Amino acid sequence: MSSQPAISPKFLERWKDVHNAVTTFSQVAKSLNEVEEVMIERRTLGDQVKRLETERSESAGEVASLKTTHTVLIQQFELRYNSWELERKELREQYEDGKRKGQQELDDIKRELAAREGQLRTAQSSIVEKDVKILGLERSLHEALNELRDIRGAIGLIDLDESLSVSDSHDMRIY
Is the CB of residue 162 less than 8 Å from the CB of residue 114? Predict the structure, then answer.
């Protein structure tokens, strides 16, 4: 076997120090890379925050404008509603007044109609009574003319003129 030269402890110590330094450097480099990634991510998030703050401030103006518009629309609606409510009350009062007046006029017309119907029944009764009297008088006249004709015929006078005939000139119906 061949013998290998012995490595000096100083070299080994130095080698360990270098190895430790390289390992530490590698860990530090890795940590620095992680820190750099975090810093990049932080900058990106900061940019996003700024953009969102800008959008929020722009939206705040829009929200304020929408709130103002909403308030104005609510006020306009309330004014219109109050106006409609007043108009509705006025129309309701006019309707109730018209309904009352219409009912009163209807009641007056019914009373007047009942009174006129009574007058018409009375007049109709009077007409019927007069028609019955006229019919009775026409019959009596007709009988008297017939008797007169018979008497003239009996005593030999000329036949009674046809113009004296009542039955042809009057309608003997009862109304």
Answer: no
Please list, residue by residue across 134-159, b when 16 or more beta carbons sit within 10 angstroms of its beta carbon and e when fewer do: ebeebeeeeeeeeeeeeeeeeeeeee
3-class secondary structure, 173: coil
Give, as one character, the DSSP assignment of residue 157: P
pLDDT digit string, tens, across residues 38-62: 999 999 999 999 998 888 888 888 8
Task: Give the CA-trace dihedral at 84, 85, 88, 89, to 10 degrees.
Answer: -150
Provide mean pLDDT across the span 64-77.
92
Q: What's the pLDDT band for 174 if we cut at 50, 70, 90?
A: very low
Determine the 3-state secondary structure of 156 from DSSP. Answer: coil
The full set of domain ranges for the chain reads: 9-125
Residue 171's nearest CA partner among 133, 130, 135 is 135
pTM exceeds 0.85 for this model: no
Instruction: Identify which of 132, 164, 130 has the alpha carbon closest to the alpha carbon of residue 149.
Output: 164
Place of tokens 């009350």: 89
